[in-house]
Specification:
The chain is mainly α. The protein has one domain: Orthogonal Bundle (MetI-like fold). It contains ten helices and no strands. The longest helix has 36 residues. It starts with 35 loop residues before the first helix and ends in a 5-residue tail after the last helix. Keywords: Cell membrane, Membrane, Transmembrane, Transmembrane helix, Transport. It is a multi-pass membrane protein. This is ABC transporter permease.
Amino acid sequence: MSDMPLTGQAATPAPAPSRPVPFRGGGFKPVPVRYLGALVIVALIALIEWGTRTGAISNLTLPRPSDVLGTFRDLWVTGLLWEHLLPSLSRLAVGSALGVSTGIAVGVMIGLFSIARAGLVPLVAAIFPIPKIALLPLFVIWFGIDEGSKYALIAFGTFTPTVVSTYGAVDNVDRTLIRMGQSFGLSWWSIVRKIVLPGAMPGILSGLRISLSIGIILLVAAEMLGARYGIGAYILEAGSLYDLERLFAGVVILSALGVLTSAAISWAERRLLSWRV
């Protein structure tokens, strides 16, 4: 028989060349872009410097960044920077450690035990919306005007958001993984240690970003009452003298403290969440 196709019969089209299918979640995976954040900050500072020098921005509204840099240099040379910064760091570290550690423990208990959930969730919901700064006079009465009231305010302020984020993260752990662990005969403690806690860790670390930011805000409020040294006391003194250069120097220190805190949490995420793809 002839190998030629019959008249009127359509020829079979050649198959399209195969191409690899990209990873479907790749478009949602964050890709690091180096130096972009630093360039944005530098561009903003340069814009403010240009505006204050040309008169487009009043010096009564914003000081020149170069003058703020000169204030930083004076703080460094005179040693006042560390006299104000070290007490603030110690207060933030102690208060946040107390609030965060207690909040994680209580949040895990609420997420794991029905009795704890029934008894503590209404209490947390009741105290969460209370403005923590409004409780500073009460803490001064209870713990005195010295360091105790400052530790208590920061600890209380970081406690409630940590509890909410922690038990929410525990609730969001995939129940299929838990049932899989039970089908393999894992003990209750093994399921908590190998499935629940690692699965809740992303949510816990995300909650820490909010909790520690609140801690920095409450640190400033606490130091504005009855503190001789500290970033909050420094900002309060500069504001009372209408010294914008010193005031913005203190604000920049707080911003840098927030950036360093966020960087520390990002480092912890890379170490603790290396199993994520």
